[in-house]
Amino acid sequence: MAINRELREIAEHIGGTISGDGDVVIKDIRGIDDARAGDLTFIANPQYRKKLKETKASAVIVSSEIRESGKNLIIVNDPYIALTKALALFYPEGRNPTGISSDACIGEDALIGEDVTIYPGVYVGSGTRIGKGAILHPGVSLGNGVVIGEDAVLYPNVTIYRRCIIGNRVILHAGVVVGSDGFGFAHPGRDNMKVPQTGIVQIDDECEIGANTTIDRATLGKTWIKRGTKVDNLVQIAHNVVIGENSVIVAQVGISGSTKLGKSVIVGGQAGIVGHIEIGNNVMIAAQSGVHEGIGSNNIVAGSPHRPHRDWLRTQACIAKLPEMRKTIKTLSQKLAILEKELEDLKE
Amino acid sequence: MAINRELREIAEHIGGTISGDGDVVIKDIRGIDDARAGDLTFIANPQYRKKLKETKASAVIVSSEIRESGKNLIIVNDPYIALTKALALFYPEGRNPTGISSDACIGEDALIGEDVTIYPGVYVGSGTRIGKGAILHPGVSLGNGVVIGEDAVLYPNVTIYRRCIIGNRVILHAGVVVGSDGFGFAHPGRDNMKVPQTGIVQIDDECEIGANTTIDRATLGKTWIKRGTKVDNLVQIAHNVVIGENSVIVAQVGISGSTKLGKSVIVGGQAGIVGHIEIGNNVMIAAQSGVHEGIGSNNIVAGSPHRPHRDWLRTQACIAKLPEMRKTIKTLSQKLAILEKELEDLKE
Amino acid sequence: MAINRELREIAEHIGGTISGDGDVVIKDIRGIDDARAGDLTFIANPQYRKKLKETKASAVIVSSEIRESGKNLIIVNDPYIALTKALALFYPEGRNPTGISSDACIGEDALIGEDVTIYPGVYVGSGTRIGKGAILHPGVSLGNGVVIGEDAVLYPNVTIYRRCIIGNRVILHAGVVVGSDGFGFAHPGRDNMKVPQTGIVQIDDECEIGANTTIDRATLGKTWIKRGTKVDNLVQIAHNVVIGENSVIVAQVGISGSTKLGKSVIVGGQAGIVGHIEIGNNVMIAAQSGVHEGIGSNNIVAGSPHRPHRDWLRTQACIAKLPEMRKTIKTLSQKLAILEKELEDLKE
Predict the structure, then answer these.
(1) Does the beta-carbon distance from A121 to C121 stay under 8 Å?
(2) Which of A296, B252, C24, C49 is the most exposed place for a label (fewest CB within 10 A)?
(3) Which stretch of DSSP H or E encloses residue A88?
(4) Which CATH number is A5-90's, of 3.40.50.11930, 3.40.50.740, 3.40.1390.10, 3.30.930.10?
C-alpha cells in the first residue's frame, strides 16, 4: 500500500525542483488518465504533454521543457528515472523471508543460505546451492547441482535444468526455462540423430528474464547471459549464445545457436538472428528484423534480411512507390516505342 | 463419451432441416476423412465439398448450397455454428466439482466460493477470492490478493501474480502467465534501471487465453483484456495494453506497451504492434504484419511495415515483377541511348 | 563426469582414423575456444578451420579435407556425427529409476510400468497409462486417460491434457503444453462462440519437443506429430495439424489449423504457415517465411509471402537496388521528355 507524503519530500527524494505548492499531500502515483486529486502523475513522452491541462492529479513530474502554470510540478532532467525513484518510495519492495515450506522437496546436500524463502511445491535437486535472501516461488523446479545467487527471485513454475548457474539479484519470471537441451541433431531431416547437450547456462548478476522465455544449455561449454542484461517474455535463446552486458532483448526475439552479441545491444521485438555470427557493441536491431550476417559495433539495422537502417528507410519508401514506378515504366516503354517509330519515319 | 441420438433429434437441436432419413442413429461426430458408418460429419469449408461423395459418414451437416442426393443431410445456415451445437450435445461439458485437495496450499484469508475444485499442487496466496464453480488444475499458482471469477477454469501450471483480477467464465490454458512485470527500464542499453511495476492485469468475463501466453502487469493502472476477447497460444501482451470486447488475437502475436485496441479487432498470427498507439474498432490485421502507427476503425491492413490491405496486395504483385522491371529499365536505358545518338546524327 | 580415454579408443568408437599420437589421454571434450591440454575438440564448420592452429586441445576431430601436421587428429567423414558419438562415450546417459515419490498424486486406475520415475509434485490423472522406464519430472501434470510411452522423458512443468497419447522415447522439454483447446470460434470478432475441441494430440515414437512449445488438441480426430520429428522451443502447432516423419521445426514457428506437412520437412525459425494447406515431402522453408499456400515435394521456399528460394533471392537483389532503379526511371523520364521535344522540333 502507498504511504502519504508531501510533494516537497518526494521532490527531494527524486532530485527535482518544485514549481507550485510543495506542501500538497500525495497519496499515490497514477497514470495521467487515471490520476485523481491526491495523486502524483508524470509526463515522460512529449506526445502526452497536451494531457497536462486535463489531468486531475495534484502534481505532475515533468521535464524542464514544461513550465505550465496552474499545476504543481516537479521539474526533473529525466521524468522516467524520476518516476522510477518515486515508485520505489511509494511501493518499497517487501522482502519478508518466510522460510522453507515443509511442502517443498529439498534434495540431499543442498546448501540453503540465510533468509531464503522456499514456497510450497518447490523442488530443489541434490547438490544445489541457494544464496542468501533468494526467493523460490511455488512450482519452481531446480535440477541437481544448480547454483542460485543471493537475493535472486524465481517466480512460479520456473524450471532450471541440472548444473546451470544463476547470478545474484537475478529475476526469472514465471514459466522461464533455463538449461533445456540445445536443438542439435546430426542429419537433420534424415534420421535426426540427437547430439548430447552437455554444457550449461550461466546468467550473471542483475539480469532479468521475462515470462516463458527459454534459454537452452550449450552443447559444450556454456550459453551465457552477461551482467545487467534484460530479456523480455517469450524470447528464444539457443545453445552457446553469448549476450554481452546491459543488453536489452525485447519480447519474442529468437537468437540462433552460437551467435555472440556485444555489450548494450538492443534487439527489437520479434527479430530473428541466425546462428554462428557476431554482433558488436551498441548495435540496435529494429523489431521484426531478420539478421543474416554479423554486424559491427554501433550500427543500427532494420528489415528482413537486415540492412543499415538508413538504407532500409530508403528502400521502404521505394516499395510504397512500386505500383507508380511500374506504371511509369510501362508509359516510358510506350512512349519510347512511339519515338522509335517516329524517328524511323523521319529517317526515311 | 458420446451418446447415441437420432438424426432428427440432432437436426432439431441445431436448427437444421433434414434431407434424407431422419431415423438414422448417430453415435459420434468425426471429421470428413475419418468418419465411419454411424458418424455425423460436416462440410464448413466449400473446398472440402468434393469429399461429400467419398465420406463413409451416415449423415453430413451442410450449408443450404449443397443438396446432394444419396446422403443424409442436415441443411443449416452456418455449418460451423451447427457443428458447435452438435458437439455440445454429444460432448456435454462435465463439471463435477471434486472439492479442495488436501495437497493444495490455501493462504490465510482466502475466500473460496461454493463448488470450487482445487487440485493437488495448487498454491493460493493470502487474501485471494475464488468465485463459485471455479476450477484450479494442478500446479496453478495464485499470488496474494488475486480475484478469480465464477466458473473460471485455470488449466495446469497457470501463474497469476499478486492482485490481478480474472473475470467470470474465463478460461486460462496451461502455462499462461498473468501479471509478470512489464518490461520497463530507464536508460535502456546503459544501466537498465528497473521501473517498479505496481499496476495489475484485469481480464473480463468470457475471455479465453491460450497456452503459454504472457500478459504483463501495468506500470501504473491496469493491463486490460475486455469481455469476450479470445487470445491464442504464445501471445505477448505488454504492460498497460488495452484490448476491446470480442477481439481475436491469433498465436504468437506481440502487442507492445500502452497500445490500445478497439472492439472486435482481429489480429493474425505472428503480427507485431508497436507501443503507444491506438487501433480502432473492427480492424483486421493480417498475419505477420508489423503495425507501426495507429489505425482507424474498420480498416484492413497487411505487411511490415503495415499498409492498407489493397495497397499491400498491389505492392506485393509489383515485388514479384521486380526482376522483370529491372530488366525493362535496363532495356529502356539502352534503347534511349540509341535514340539519343540517332537523333544527334539526324540533327547534324 | 567425463572419464579418461586414450585417443585410439575414441577413434575406434567413432569410426575415425588417427593422424598423430593415438596414445594421448583425453579427459574431456570442449569447444575449440575453450579446449585445454587433455581435451578433445572438433571442427564441424569449415569457417572455424583457422582456429586449428590456436587451439590448446590435445586432439581434434576433423573431416578428411584437413590434414594439418603438428596436431593429433581423428579424421572422419562427418565431424558432427563423430562428436555426437564421442559425447555419448564421455557422457553416458544416466537413467537410475528412483521410483514413485510419495509426494506425487497418482489417480485411480493409473497403470504405471516398471522402472518408472515419478518426482514429487507430479499429478497423474485417472485411467492414465505410463510405459516402463518413463520419467516424469516435478510439476508434470497429466489429465485423465493420458498414455505415456516407454522411456519417455517429461521435464518439469509439462502439461498433457486428457486422453492425449505420447509415444515411446519421446522427450518433452520443460513447460511444453500438449492438448490445449484448438483456437476455434464461430463468428470471430462478433460473439466468438467457442467450438468444443473434442479430439486429441498424438505424438509418435522418438519425437522431441522443445521448451514451452504448445500443441493444441484437434477439434475432431487428432493433431499428429509423426515418428522422429524434432520441434524446437516456443513453437505453436494448431488443432488438426499433421507433421510427417523426421521433420525439423525450428524455434518460434507457427503452424495454423488443419495444415499437413510431409516427411522430412525443415521449417526455419519464426516461419508461419497458414491453415488448411498441404506441404509435400522434403520441403525446406526458410526462417521468417510466410507460407500462404500449399507446396509440392522437394521445394525450397523463402520470403513472406513465400516464393521459390531462387526467385526470392533474385527479388531481394532487386529490392536492394530499388532506390537506384527509382532514380534511373526518373532520369529516363526526363531524357525521354527532352527527346520528344527535340523530335517535335525536328519535325517542324
Answers:
(1) yes
(2) A296
(3) helix A79-90
(4) 3.40.1390.10
